[in-house]
Design a protein that fits this description.
CATH superfamily of the largest domain: LarA, C-terminal domain
Radius of gyration: 19 Å
Oligomer: single chain
CATH architecture of the largest domain: Alpha-Beta Complex
Number of strands: 14
Helix content: 25-40%
Number of domains: 2
Distance between the termini: 49 Å
Order of helices and strands: EEEEEHHEEHEEHHEHHHEHEHEE
Strand order of the largest sheet: 12-11-10-9-13
CATH class of the largest domain: Alpha Beta
Length: 283
């Protein structure tokens, strides 16, 4: 059950779980890692999208998709501002955030004011996840581990690769996806292959009800308009990948052999654990 606590700048309602309206003091608990929608997870993200209503969450994702392909690693941005606004309206007064390393061991924990704790957590998150990387690569070969149960998680690999590839470059993404594309957002299989403007038009007109799915589809469409995305997966069918505008191979070696033929002396990058990486591109 949701309760309305305000209005977004866009005019959409700010709705959060009714339980927040019953308490005198609320403290959020979260983990801070690089994130493509809001720059970093954690902080006020525990409220939006954490305990917000479907419409509120959907509008936030659509705003992010309209503004950029990705906010990965950008600490100050419009989406974080919106999250802070919603958290304040919802009555979030304190925060406990932590940062963990690649195998889940805590490296930092802080408590205090929402913005102050988040700012310090971002510093530690950069120390753990930021890696120096060359830019303008021709090809990136990436593994979606550990976000690989379905493409709804594996797509997090697209954003760090997008940061280091040149226009017209190729991402070869190896991802098992045993649960397929997106069990809870099946519309993305048809939406993602459309131009981003068409997806946005359908969302604004109400033809698409799943705004979160529409937002991700818009972002994937924007990315594949700049780079070639090749999916290597046993869990995603060829027709599903191509419906989303991606190329598909069943075997990684076949994908590498055929895709590298498109380049003369390609500059290649390898990304292990791609969903967890924050590239610091060398200029």
């Amino acid at each position: 059950k949701q309760v309305r606590v305000g209005t977004m700048p866009s005019g959409a309602p700010i709705e959060v779980t009714k339980e927040l309206s019953k308490v005198d003091f609320s403290i959020g608990i979260g983990c801070v890692t690089p994130h493509h929608v809001s720059g970093f997870s954690g902080g006020s993200k525990i409220v939006l999208p954490g305990v917000s209503g479907e419409r509120t969450v959907g509008e936030m994702h659509m705003l992010s998709a309209r503004l950029r392909r990705s906010f990965l690693g950008i600490e100050e941005n419009e989406i974080r501002d919106l999250m802070d606004l919603v958290a304040e309206k919802a009555g979030l007064r304190g925060l406990i955030d932590l940062v963990v390393d690649g195998i889940g061991r805590p490296t930092w924990i802080g408590a205090g004011g929402v913005r102050e704790v988040f700012k310090e957590a971002v510093k530690e998150s950069r120390r753990i996840y930021e890696v120096e990387s060359p830019g303008n690569l021709d090809v990136v070969i990436a593994s979606s581990y550990p976000a690989d149960i379905e493409f709804w998680q594996a797509h997090k690999s697209l954003y760090p690769a997008d940061m280091v590839l040149r226009d017209g470059g190729t991402l070869i993404l190896a991802t098992p996806c045993p649960e397929g594309v997106a069990r809870t957002h099946p519309e993305v299989i048809e939406l993602a292959g459309l131009p981003p403007e068409e997806i946005d038009k359908r969302a604004r007109s109400g033809l698409v009800k799943d705004l979160i799915g529409a937002a991700n589809s818009m972002v994937w469409s924007k990315i594949r308009s700049r780079i070639r995305v090749v999916i290597v997966s046993e869990g995603i069918r060829e027709d599903e990948a191509k419906s989303m505008g991606f190329e598909w191979y069943g075997e990684l070696q076949e994908a590498i052999d055929k895709e590298l033929r498109r380049f003369d002396k390609p500059r290649i990058g390898i990304m292990k654990n791609a969903p967890e990486l924050l590239p610091k591109v060398q200029v």
